[in-house]
Amino acid sequence: MYKLLAKDGRAKRGEFHTVHGVIQTPVFMNVGTAAAIKGAVSTQDLQGIKTQVELSNTYHLHVRPGDEVIKKLGGLHKFMVWDKPILTDSGGFQVFSLAGLRKIKEEGVYFNSHVDGRKIFMGPEESMRIQSNLASTIAMAFDECPPHPAERSYMQDSVDRTTRWLIRCKEELNRLNSLPDTINKNQMLFGINQGGTYKDIRIEHAKKISEFDLNGYALGGLAVGESHAEMYYIIEETVPYLPLEKPTYLMGVGTPENILESVERGIDFFDCVYPARNGRHGHAYTNHGKMNLMNAKYELDDAPIERGCGCPVCKYYSRAYIRHLLKAKEMLGLRLLVTHNLYFYNNMMEEIRAAIEEQRYAEYKKNKLNGFAQGEE
């Protein structure tokens, strides 16, 4: 259940009640694709850096170790030792981005595993069964993620198929939630809005899927090659046609700037690999922009990554030490940067929630963006 607590313009501040706890929104979901955050960050670490939701991937866990294995071990929460909400994405995006050769049919998609080449079929029912085995808090509907750019006729056919698949997802998840051996009988379902940069297709699809009375709604197929201006325009035009009393989720986005702009346009949920991926490449997010800790100027710098940061890394370690670890190719360097970056994102979401509550979001956003524009110290 979603409870809207405050609005500031279109920015929403809410609470999303789930069987695994209450999610304060807007929220950034920390991405643990294969049931682990890349960069050797444990679930105990996540508890200490304000993480509310962990996101794992249906396709990757189906391929390895297998969703049946995870079910036998008590579900994903027990498997990865995490007691807060988990969202699993449907595998749709991975099928289209990793599979290479694939055949899309009405029943689903035939493709080869990117790990061992074995033939796999995934459709709406299969995606729901895998996610039910994983026992995540929120399951995502199986959709087609069309390429960008795509012809209008292809996009329309694809979106229509995604709608038909959504009907099948909802029916199958209702069936699975009623079975005696299902681990999480309260698993929720989010539908996905598609349509590329075709505003009218997006709006029509948003209206259609809103009738399904799902637990939440996502915008998919953005940040796939279109400009930021195009993405913001589509969000702005589409979100008003999704239910205000349900959470909206912008999939796979983004940078801190993307998040600030999208919150202003009514988005509640975000996920992105950037904080972990950039951390593994020696980059740290700060209030004065992104820092490259590999730079020589940090060799004798005994300051923390960011002065005043409350993360466990800035509490103890210097820029000089982290730079040394990176240069020496010590894994600890990556772990410290990923931890700091995830804390930065989670903490920024906390600040965003407070700014919306206090009706000062526009001012907060402006100050934050000005800070990012300064560049590294």
Automatic annotation (TrEMBL):
What domain of life? Answer: Bacteria
Is Glycosyltransferase tagged as a keyword? Answer: yes
Q: What is its EC number?
A: 2.4.2.29
GO CC field: cytosol
Instruction: List GO molecular-function terms, semicolon-separated.
Output: metal ion binding; tRNA-guanosine(34) queuine transglycosylase activity
| One GO biological process term | tRNA queuosine(34) biosynthetic process
Q: How is the cofactor bound?
A: Binds 1 zinc ion per subunit.
The entry marks the following residues as binding Zn(2+), namely C309, C311, C314, H340
Organism of this sequence: Anaerocolumna xylanovorans DSM 12503
Its needed co-factors are: Zn(2+)
List of residues binding substrate: D89, S90, G91, G92, F93, D143, Q194, G221
Region described as RNA binding: spans on this chain: 252-258, 276-280
Q: Which Pfam families match?
A: TGT
- Keyword Transferase among record annotations: yes
What family does the database annotate? Belongs to the queuine tRNA-ribosyltransferase family.
PANTHER family, alphabetized: QUEUINE TRNA-RIBOSYLTRANSFERASE (PTHR46499:SF1)
- What exactly does this protein do? Catalyzes the base-exchange of a guanine (G) residue with the queuine precursor 7-aminomethyl-7-deazaguanine (PreQ1) at position 34 (anticodon wobble position) in tRNAs with GU(N) anticodons (tRNA-Asp, -Asn, -His and -Tyr). Catalysis occurs through a double-displacement mechanism. The nucleophile active site attacks the C1' of nucleotide 34 to detach the guanine base from the RNA, forming a covalent enzyme-RNA intermediate. The proton acceptor active site deprotonates the incoming PreQ1, allowing a nucleophilic attack on the C1' of the ribose to form the product.
Q: What is this protein called?
A: Queuine tRNA-ribosyltransferase
To which pathway does this protein belong? Answer: tRNA modification; tRNA-queuosine biosynthesis
Q: Which UniProt keywords apply?
A: Glycosyltransferase, Metal-binding, Queuosine biosynthesis, Transferase, tRNA processing, Zinc
